[in-house]
Amino acid sequence: MSTFAERIISFNQNLEYTGSLPEGIRIMNPFQESPLALAASSEFYRKYYSDNQPRHLILGINPGRFGSGQTGISFTDPKRLQANCHIDYAGPMTHEPSSAYIYEMIAAFGGEEKFYQQFYIHSICPLGFTKTGENGKETNYNYYDNPALLKSVYSFIVANIRKQIDIGFEIDCCFCFGTGKNETFFRKLNDAHQFFKQIVALEHPRYIMQYKSKEKSFYIDKYLSAFSEF
């Protein structure tokens, strides 16, 4: 029987969006665009997921440019990949505040090996989006930011949540990063498709770092308390 690592890597390698997108929005697929991301993520998953222990899913929104857009690993920017996971990365050393928060939380949980033995983080939409502004600058874009985009990617989201569940993760509970639009959409989606018996929503790391950084320890404790229930 293959391990979680090999099934996750296969899932990543086969991720492809072939539908239409609203004008000015680009799909971001690090597994097809960046050999560095595919190599780094494959090494990461083989390091922490080469087994078949039961794990729970944690789903964020969609990949961002400076974290998994670079490394192929959710909420893991190149800085954390090297410093915390001890995996070499030859690309640019981008910094994502959400990644800094997640790895501080993981340290409080007991470290990378302990955390990743119990949890797997990905996204409701497993590929990310960018939008080009009038100044020509690309910015991150969320699947729910545009009704036309959400309509376009809805079936892609549904199919890939099913594929992630089929990797072998627990379905009694799924954790959701985001207590606003991401949670609202995910709960409606789960009601319609009955993916999970329960969804536990936690404030998104980006929200915490941007608006609640002085209360960071409170949110870390909140995460740990929620995780300890399962």
TrEMBL record:
Matches recorded under CDD domains: UDG-F3-like_SMUG2
Taxonomic superkingdom: Bacteria
Domain Uracil-DNA glycosylase-like: 48-226
Signal sequence region: none
InterPro entries in UniProt: Phe_SMUG2-like, Uracil-DNA_glycosylase-like, Uracil-DNA_glycosylase-like_sf
Pfam families noted in UniProt: UDG
Protein name: DUF4918 family protein
Source organism: Pedobacter gandavensis
